[in-house]
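WARN retry 2 of 3 for item q-0093 after timeout on previous attempt; input resubmitted unchanged.
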Amino acid sequence: MPHPDELQQEIVRLQNQVAQLRNKAALGELLGTTTHEFNNILMTVINYAKMGIRHKDEPTRDKALEKILAAGERAATITRNVLGMAKNRSVDFGATDLAQLIEQTMLLLQREMQQYRITVEVDPGQDIPNVRAIGNQIQQVLMNFLINARQAMKSGGRILIRLQHDQEKQAVALSVRDFGEGIPEATLPKIFDSYFTTKSGPDESGKGGTGLGLAACKEVIEQHGGRIRVDSTVGKGTMFTIMLPVFTDANSHQPSADGSNQTTPQSIAG
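OK item q-0093 returned
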């Protein structure tokens, strides 16, 4: 029978493999979202280029060139952000600006939200400190919340993203609120279970339906020493909230997600 220490080492090894696979899956999802955005930009460029070729008058051509320039500038902005995110796929905790992370995420999802007639409002709060986090992992949690919120409002609607600083708990709350169909009370306790889903499969955009999303989100937040909760009322909507510790000198040397330095991450009190 294996020694307990050997079993513990095997558990850590498997956890590291899962973390690496999740990181690769997240990068693949980022690539898919970016490819979709670039396809939209290319269609804009092609259509306005055709319009400029068909119409010889100067006002029409000027309009076409302005639209092409705007599309090119948007593509350049997306490229800069994606390159930055791709380089920052480390498993090390660091000071993370959640407001900047929200802005980068919305840049990638902006057209998708417009396509489904979703308006996204952001309340960045005031004097929000950096949190101790692995930025790319928290971004994937945020993307999961936003896609779930969009899917909950099949006829369009509104999403509210809010940041709040809880000084007493030395934590920052990031919440994503939709005004969709809501989750039945009997279903709420199950939504963070692996493979549990209320969806029949991926939607037309190819997203959702595996039941892995929220379970993975919960695991990520707990590994960050944070908390995740959901509040929902049928017919009124759902709000997911994560609480993450504020970045301080005291917790800056705590462990990375690859298992190095086995000190327990600082959790949020209360």
